[in-house]
């Protein structure tokens, strides 16, 4: 197995950091790797806001629900859906930018944000740093918008911590649903997905118990805990206030 595959197959979220600084040269490389990720039509409708100020990082941790892995990170990178850049390009071309007011615009921005954060984390982990994706910033999008001074036609989609891993605290690779219920050949198989859910529910329960976290919920219990309600209720309202609207809805 080559080094790249080994890294990807052993990816895990790191929530404990030493407090040491991420080297500036390393951070520059990480950001460049994220920038090189593909975007739809090469629109480059993603921007990164890099936070190193400790007081601001603690504020982001509060916004995200008081997450300690955010508060103790050396760097927090917010991945921003950015049609403000497209708007500048459209003005130069003498046309009006409307993509942010469509369902496709939201999908494109979200997809590209996910691609960017994956590239960023892969780069950071290749240099020995730990990361965790943080979607909790959408619990209070207005606070993030104000903190980062985001203009109209931009939105804080998600973020990532970066820090030096505290190796004294063990971390393990969390199992996933069975591969045959995840990667399906030729057509979607509802039965495989359903049976995979039940198998994974048992496997994850055993995994939690094996690392001494018996109080953690099973897969089905955790999914039900979040997906039985709209757990970030401010997203739609703040999207509208930032200039995003489904004007193409039927």
TrEMBL record:
Residues 9-154 form the Nitroreductase domain. SUPFAM superfamilies: FMN-dependent nitroreductase-like. InterPro entries: Flavin_OxRdtase_Frp, Nitroreductase, Nitroreductase-like. The keyword Ubl conjugation does not apply. Gene3D superfamilies: NADH Oxidase (3.40.109.10). Keywords: Flavoprotein, FMN, NADP, Oxidoreductase. Belongs to the flavin oxidoreductase frp family. This is Oxygen-insensitive NADPH nitroreductase.
């Amino acid at each position: 197995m080559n080094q790249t595959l080994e890294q990807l197959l052993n990816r895990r979220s790191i929530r404990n950091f030493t407090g040491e600084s991420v080297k500036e040269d390393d951070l520059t490389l990480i950001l460049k790797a994220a920038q090189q990720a593909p975007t739809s039509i090469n629109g480059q409708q993603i921007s990164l806001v890099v936070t190193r100020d400790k007081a601001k990082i603690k504020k982001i941790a509060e916004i995200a629900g008081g997450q300690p892995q955010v508060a103790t990170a050396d760097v927090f990178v917010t991945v921003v859906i950015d049609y403000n850049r497209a708007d500048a390009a459209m003005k130069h071309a003498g046309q009006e930018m409307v993509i942010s007011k469509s369902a496709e615009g939201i999908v494109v921005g979200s997809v590209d944000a996910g691609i960017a954060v994956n590239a960023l984390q892969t780069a950071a982990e290749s240099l020995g740093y730990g990361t965790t994706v943080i979607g909790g910033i959408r619990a209070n999008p207005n606070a993030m918008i104000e903190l980062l001074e985001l203009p109209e036609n931009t939105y804080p989609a998600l973020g990532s911590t970066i820090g030096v891993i505290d190796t004294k605290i063990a971390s393990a690779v969390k199992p996933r649903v069975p591969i045959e219920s995840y990667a399906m050949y030729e057509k979607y198989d509802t039965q495989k997905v359903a049976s995979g859910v039940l198998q994974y529910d048992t496997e994850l329960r055993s995994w939690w118990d094996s690392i001494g976290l018996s109080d953690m919920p099973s897969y089905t219990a955790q999914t039900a805990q979040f997906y039985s309600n709209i757990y970030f209720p401010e997203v739609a309202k703040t999207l509208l206030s930032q200039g995003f609207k489904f004007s193409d809805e039927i």
